[in-house]
Amino acid sequence: MSSTVLYMSMSLDGFIAGPNETPDNPLGDGGERLHEWPFPGTEGGMNRQVYDEFMSTGAIVAGSGSFEPAGGWGGDHHDGVPIYILSRHPAPTWTANWPAVHYGNDLEGAMRNAKRAAGDKNVLVHGASTAQRALTAGLLDELEIHLIPVILGEGRRLFEHLGAEQRELERIRVLEGEGGVTHLRYRVRL
Amino acid sequence: MSSTVLYMSMSLDGFIAGPNETPDNPLGDGGERLHEWPFPGTEGGMNRQVYDEFMSTGAIVAGSGSFEPAGGWGGDHHDGVPIYILSRHPAPTWTANWPAVHYGNDLEGAMRNAKRAAGDKNVLVHGASTAQRALTAGLLDELEIHLIPVILGEGRRLFEHLGAEQRELERIRVLEGEGGVTHLRYRVRL
Q1: In terms of CA atoms, which chain A residue is nearest residue B174?
Q2: I want to staple B14 with a disulfide (CB 3.0 to 4.6 A). Which of A14, A97, B134, B162 is the partner?
Q3: Chain A within 8 Å of B137 (Cβ-Cβ)?
Q4: Residue B69, C-beta contacts closer than 8 angstroms, at least 6 positions apart
Q5: In chain A, whose CA is at the least distance from the CA of B158?
Q6: What would the pLDDT profile of A147-184 be if each residue is shown by its tens digit?
Q7: Could you tell me if A145 lies within 8 Å of chain B, comparing CB atoms?
Q8: Are A26 and A20 in contact (CB under 8 A)?
Q9: Sign of the torsion angle spanned by Cα atoms B50, B51, B55, B61
């Protein structure tokens, strides 16, 4: 059965971007440190295994804050799988010729459509706001956190605005990646 | 050589206590969830290994916010090792007959005295404020984070008030403890 899986790189102190995020500085100051691990992606390594895994998902649900600063991944994140973008604004005109890209702000609908499109494959979920909304709505099945061996000190946190609700997780995998990156996989207990 | 090692239990979302901490509710709402793992401490298990490790340290540096709500550990955390408590207030009178307990607010002096007292053993560092001060002052050698498979949503964070200074860590050990607790050990790179 298809699962919705959040894939996010996070510093040990919980940040997914550095401070001073702007359109020209989308990862914030120092935030690029969190995204070094998938490159060069040595064959046979743990980092490559995790990279290949999320590049084998069957659909994507992400926020416009992830999608737009990344140039919309050229309209094709991988293999032309459908991309559901959560946004309060309409799709920018530069996405008009990308048939795989679907804008909207209905998280539940996006997750349902993505699961249907993914078939037996998993759905790649990405972005801090999307993660928070999906957790709150009970629509996130699993989390794969790429824990980076760095303390950023300031920036944007992955886990915020969740309210005081205790959510139990089941640890299902720990992979010791190259460069000190630890890939932690959890299932959200319902 | 003796190292100063922070030992802290933390939720996946970075909290070391739940919300609404008070003297009567020192771990905050739901915070006890973070401290189940050392008990019952099965022989031969990973959790027991880590527990035995911090119970073999040669001195302690902690904040009064850790020490006082815990009843000052009866004046003896383990084996009568010296306990250096960082506090802006004088030692409470109920600690007067505990020779191992030393109050003060000089972090550098406490760390130096603790290292000297510990000899070849490590120094157990504990408490969020103490961790933040020690990291900022460059006086923390290692971190051992017991990552608990739970999202608390609100509470007190371990990593706060550190300023936008990027600190590189070296991952030196990952232990998959019982109950989904992952013990992550890092050395702070200077």
Answers
A1: A176
A2: A14
A3: no
A4: B23, B26
A5: A13
A6: 999 999 999 999 999 999 999 999 999 999 999 999 99
A7: yes
A8: no
A9: positive
CA distance B41 to A96: 59
Phi and psi at residue B13, to the nearest 5°: -90, 15
User: The pTM is what?
Assistant: 0.96
Calculate the CA B75 to chain-centre distance. Answer: 17
Q: Distance from B20 to chain A by nearest Cα, in Å?
A: 10
The two tokens of residue A135 are 């957790």
Per-residue model confidence as pLDDT tens digits over A41-85: 677 899 999 999 999 999 999 999 999 999 999 999 999 999 999
Q: How far is CA B168 from CA A29, B55, B141, B151, in A?
A: 15, 27, 12, 25
- The reported pLDDT for the residue numbered B129 is 96
Task: State how far the Cα of B134 lies from the Cα of B63, in Å rounded to an integer.
Answer: 11
Judged by CB atoms closer than 8 Å, whether chains meet at A162 and B150 is answered as no
DSSP H or E segment with residue A50: helix A46-54
* Chain A neighbors of B134, CB-CB under 8 A: none
Number of Cβ pairs < 8 A linking chain A and chain B: 117
Residue with the two structure tokens 């100051």? A29
Give the type of residue at A99: P
Max CA-CA distance within chain B? 43
